[in-house]
Design goal:
InterPro entries: ARM-like, ARM-type_fold. It comes from Stentor coeruleus. This is TOG domain-containing protein. It is a single chain. The chain is an all-alpha fold and 281 residues long. It has 2 domains: 109 residues, Leucine-rich Repeat Variant (Alpha Horseshoe), CATH 1.25.10.10; 99 residues, no CATH class. It is 70% helix and 0% strand. It contains 17 helices and no strands. The radius of gyration is 22 Å and the shape is elongated. The protein starts with a helix and ends with a helix.
């Protein structure tokens, strides 16, 4: 009791002063400490770590199942966090966007654990980890995208393309596109995993205009262009074979902004050039 009491006192003192705790939260004893303190205290500790930008410690809390209550969902469309692990992911996703150079080294080391969050299927954590991946895949660190493909990322995420939440579908699609962009091998892996079918289904769910539609069109273009920004005829052929002409015919270009219209015409031009070349051949 004396040992734990001393730790709790140290914890409170460190929280108030925002100094890094002198005990290691990754030890077995510290796991007991997590279980014995209240969820409010642990949330306060998370906040302290966020303010101190101690991302490594926050990473260790992703698997923590202690319940939390009345935590604001961020973004607003996400499920309210139900556990400390979900709050940790929320903090990390925002930090990855704001401090990528600080957070990515720690996140790159725990990619398998982050992917495992998707496999576990707890929706509040799945949404947060996908938002985290959407920022993580912007990184110039190519090994991250390569490793995610090796961890069967496409297989796990593609079913979520049909999620009822419009915003979550967008996060899933754009994250996959960031992984396969400018890499023929990863593009082909996405295609082999039936990615085009799922991508076309997302497009068919609409709306067929606006910023989201523009991003989806870009996802198709990114699947077509290789590392040298040249059209890959084989990939164009796959797109044409899966494309829903009813959806294409439903597009009302009069409802688009100039920027969206230009991107749509860019895609149509790529597809028409391929068809023209096939006729010539």
């Amino acid at each position: 009791m004396g040992c734990c009491q001393n730790r709790s006192e140290l914890f409170i003192a460190e929280t108030k002063s925002l100094r890094k705790p002198s005990f290691d939260y990754q030890t077995e004893d510290s796991s007991y400490e997590f279980r014995s303190i209240t969820d409010t205290t642990l949330v306060d500790y998370l906040k302290m770590c966020r303010e101190k930008r101690n991302w490594e410690v926050i990473c260790t809390l992703i698997s923590n199942q202690q319940s939390v209550f009345d935590i604001k969902p961020v973004p607003s469309w996400t499920f309210r966090p139900r556990t400390i692990g979900s709050v940790a992911l929320q903090y990390l996703s925002r930090a990855c966007k704001r401090y990528p150079q600080e957070t990515i080294p720690f996140l790159a080391e725990i990619l398998p654990d982050l992917v495992k969050v998707i496999q576990e299927g707890k929706q509040d954590k799945v949404e947060q980890v996908m938002i985290l991946f959407s920022y993580l895949t912007i990184s110039e660190e190519r090994s991250i995208r390569k490793n995610l493909v090796e961890l069967k990322f496409f297989n796990l995420v593609l079913p979520m393309f049909l999620d009822e939440k419009f915003e979550f579908r967008q996060v899933c699609v754009i994250t996959c596109a960031r992984i396969y962009k400018n890499c023929t091998e990863r593009q082909r892996k996405f295609i082999d995993d039936d990615g085009i079918t799922n991508l076309m289904q997302v497009i068919s769910m609409g709306p067929l205009r606006g910023r989201f539609f523009s991003k989806l069109i870009q996802c198709i273009i990114d699947l077509i262009l290789d590392e040298n920004k040249e059209p890959n005829s084989e990939h164009i052929g796959f797109v044409i074979s899966y494309i829903d002409l009813n959806v294409v015919n439903s597009v009302d270009i009069a409802m688009m902004s100039d920027a969206v219209r230009d991107k749509f015409f860019n895609l149509i031009s790529l597809l028409q050039t391929y068809k023209a070349n096939k006729v010539t051949d």
